[in-house]
Amino acid sequence: MKAHARSLFLAAALALVCVCLYLPMLRADFCWDARPTILANAYLHDTRHFADILTLRVMSRDVLDNNRPVFLFSALLDWTLWGTNPFGFHLTNILLHAIVTALLFALLLRLLGGSPWPSFFAALLFAVHPLACEPVAEVSYRKDLLSAACILGALHLAVAFQPRLTARNAALAIFCALLLFLAVGAKENGVAGPPALFLYWFWFRREEPRRGWIALLAAAALAVTAFLLARFTLPPFPSVIFTEKPPQLGGSLLDSVLIELRIGAFYARQIVLPLALCADYGPYNLRNFGLGVCIAAVLAIINLQVIVTLKNSVARLGAALFWLALLPASNLVPLYRPLADRFLYLPLCGLALMGAGLCRGVRSSMAAAVAGALALALALQTFQREKVWRNDEALWTDTAAKNPDSYSAADNLAGALFDNHKPSAAVQSADRAIQLAHAGKSEPYAIKALALEQLGRPSDADAAYKTALKLDARYANPRSLVTALVWEEKDVPPLEALARRNR
Question: For residue 270, is it within any domain?
Fold first, then answer.
């Protein structure tokens, strides 16, 4: 088989692995953030908003994900095609993961040359790694898939770019800058694109005439900077949806840095041994990560990366992409979610580059067998992990078991149990959420009120509802909570019944 045909066959095989591995997700429901993002978000239910998104006017609207117009465009397109059917949304995510994997393989081939097998196995391990399950399985987290696809696509164009003034090279430069613009328009970690492009030039192409490269790098930096300026200046304030800003993790920047070191060590373990994945991590999951050990571990990892990549440009680019992609997800800038599996999707692309670069030239059948066995083990773990994402009740039952201190798990599980007509269990989970929130959150009281009403205990339901109203005055008008994406339209009638009875 000729080299080009073999490469196409291997890329197709990798894409097929992605599709086959995630086929069970086609039967899954909307979970977690996908419910407010897709089902409750009226903005995505009107095709007239395509113009808003394409012109970036959406960034000045009080809309969920107004700072991620590329994701909004893809979600609105899916809504236009599929409506409330989750099948099509999941299909898009699966196909995007297949595209990212194929792009990663093709980029590795172009950077490494020679035997395709190091590139193939590196891309295969990325494709089946359980940490990719969250962004693939959860519809609203396709932002990570879109960002990764755009950055890898931009690097492909950069490899093909030549610093000569021709129509072809001008087109390559324009589309490269456009893809990096789209990457940051899909998610904030797209800011890794221009630095990665610069490092590719510096480590691979800096001996070439510089004028063309300066133009390309300047265009890429300008495109991303322009988007970031819009990102931080256009959103309306105050917001009906974002009523609270994320707190500084630990209370101060120094505390954030120290906690971030523990998170870094935790991520390293999850990458190497992804056996306890969870939808909502917290201090409970970091309880065994002592600060001194974590500092030593992170420093050792950095030193090892520096040593092994010192004379290997591809591995060095992979290590750089790993850290560049992880930096926006660090808590130096406060985040609503301090750590999550999806934050590692683009960094895993960097690790694949690093691994393939280090294994360049390795042709041992034993190495291929080990990589194949590891891929099979990871795929089996991913297949099991998918079952957790089939619906909200399964997701939050698993999360509550792995992180008993998770308020989100207890609160969302209570809502899922109520929706599934299990009011007694919903009350118990709501009480756990109330305990974890130190009685300071309104939503679990509202869920408890609905469940008690379903159990035929109106006086207890009224008491819980009044507490929710005291904590959040919007419960006097439940429809306003739909506008704020706190509740879905289906929840309005029972909440309004409680509101009328307690006026």
Answer: no
